[in-house]
Structure formats: C-alpha cells, structure tokens
Write a structure and sequence with these properties.
By secondary structure, the chain is an all-alpha fold. It is built from nine helices and no strands.
Length: 192
Amino acid sequence: MPQTERRLQIKAWHVSLLGGILVIALAMTAVFFRDRIMDVGSYGYLGAFVISVWAAAIIIVPVPGIVVIFALGGILNPFFVGMAAGLGEAIGEFTGYLAGYGGRGRLKEKYQGAYAHIERWIKKRGSLTVFASSALFNPVFDIIGATAGAMRFPPWKFFLLCWAGKTIKGTSTALLGWWGLPFILRWFGISI
C-alpha cells in the first residue's frame, strides 16, 4: 500500500473517530440532562440554538428540537428563532458529515441502494441536493450528509448550504408556531 494512501486512511479513521466521540458525548449529555432538555427553550434564542445542535447531532437519542422551535416561534421573534435553529442544526449535522468522511466503505455497505442514489445526486447537483434536502423536514438527511462527507464534498460548502437550508426549515417551523401556538393554546383554554 502506498504511503499517501495509508496516510489518507489513517486521517479518515481519525475523523471518523472524532465524529463518533462527538456523537457519544452529545448523546450522554442528552441522556444525563434529559429532564432539563425541554427547559432549554426557556433560554430563548440560545435555547433554540443549543436544542438544534443536539437534535441534529444526536441520532441515537431523540431530542425534541422541532417541538421547542415551534413553541419558541410562538413566543419570540420567529425569524430570529429560525436563524438560531438553522445555525445550530448546521453545526450539529457535521457529525453525520464526519462519520461519512471517515467511514465511506461502511456507509456503502450499510446503505447500498440509498447510497448509490444519493451519490448520483451529489455528483450531478451536489449543492442543490444538500440545500434542498436540508430545507425540508427530512428524516434521512443524516445519510445525505454522510454521503457528502464520504464523497469529500467541500466541508465549507456543505456547512453554508446546510446552514441556509436549515435556516429556512427553522424559520418555517417558528412561523408555524407563531401562527399556530395561540390557536392551540386557546383550544386548550390557555391564554397568553
């Protein structure tokens, strides 16, 4: 095996290890502070940011990020909530990107069919794929992010496109909260 190929494999393994450690640390934090996770929303825009990082980064333990963003949108300025949530989710999605960067072979084995489709999408229109899939309520975005990492899609480009898309998604959720939360509260006989 040539020296440069061996170095690349070691680098990929280190990146994958770093991503795994980050996911485990965030998951342990979420489990340890599970009673307080919903209270994060009481911290306003910072709460929207933190819960969004957790919700995007941790796929092992479900974190109710969308519920908190919806509720905060009904209480605070929905545009600022959406911006905080978008930035948080973009940062959190880097765990999937790093996992793909370091584990390309394992990713191909585990998600054979889906990986091949996503790989074609990223080869044809990578920027559009990352942006559009991050702007939607997309439960498989982690696979898209991991595939982008495995294909060595530029990390700065991934982050910026993901940030733009997640900001649209977060703002949409916050606006739904701004319009819908008063209705829901009135339905339960609660006034704000």
